[in-house]
Amino acid sequence: MIVKENYRISQSTMALKEALTPEYNVEIHDVDGVFYSTKTPRELLDEACMDRFNTYNGRIEAARKILYYPKKTPLVFGHHDHLSAFPTKSPDAYDCIWIFPKHIKTHVIEGKDLYVLFQNGQMLKLNCSLYTFQRQRERTANCLMNISDTAFIQVIVKNS
């Protein structure tokens, strides 16, 4: 078990999952391996937003109002690096898993279980339906597209 107390969400983050240990709060799936931290997933997500001069609540509220995604709202950290994540359940649920779609290769169904297969070969069992998984991916792509369009329009207006 590798502990990374100062872990920062980055382009290599693939998923955040509640840790099933009494010592740690989050299991971090990263391109470089699986790490643990005493921080909560929400704390890591908020820190990543703050690194980009935003807040978790601000980003979620904007997506809810602009795109009307009132539940399981995807999170886009910023338009410059296209870093985003989506929850498999309500973010307030203990067993919510945050998936960073950039790393998804495909999904795998084994019996009644759904897994996400990441590009580096790691697999993670999900706690949602295939419909929810696909819908969340679509919603996240829509958020990314809208934030990119908004940033592009702002640049055009600013330069004219």
What general outline do the C-alpha atoms trace? Answer: globular
Strand neighbour order, sheet with most strands: 1-4-3-2-7-6-5
Give the helix/strand class.
alpha+beta
> How would a crystallographer describe the biggest sheet?
7 strands, mixed
Radius of gyration from the CA trace?
Answer: 16 Å
Poorly predicted residue ranges: 149-160
Distance between the termini: 54 Å
- Please, how many helices? 3
Order of helices and strands: EEEEHHEEEEEEH
Helix percentage range:
25-40%
Pfam families: ComK
Organism: Bacillus chungangensis
InterPro entries: ComK (IPR010461)
Protein name: Competence protein ComK
Structural overview:
The chain has helices at 41-51, 56-67, 130-159; strands spanning 2-3, 13-18, 26-30, 33-37, 75-76, 84-87, 97-99, 104-110, 113-118, 123-126. By secondary structure, the chain is α+β, with helices and mostly antiparallel strands. It has one domain. A seven-stranded mixed sheet has the order 1-4-3-2-7-6-5. The protein has a three-stranded antiparallel sheet with strand order 8-9-10, with no helix packed on it. Mean pLDDT is 89; it is low at 149-160.
Structural key phrases:
single chain; alpha+beta; 3-stranded antiparallel β-sheet; globular; Competence protein ComK; ComK
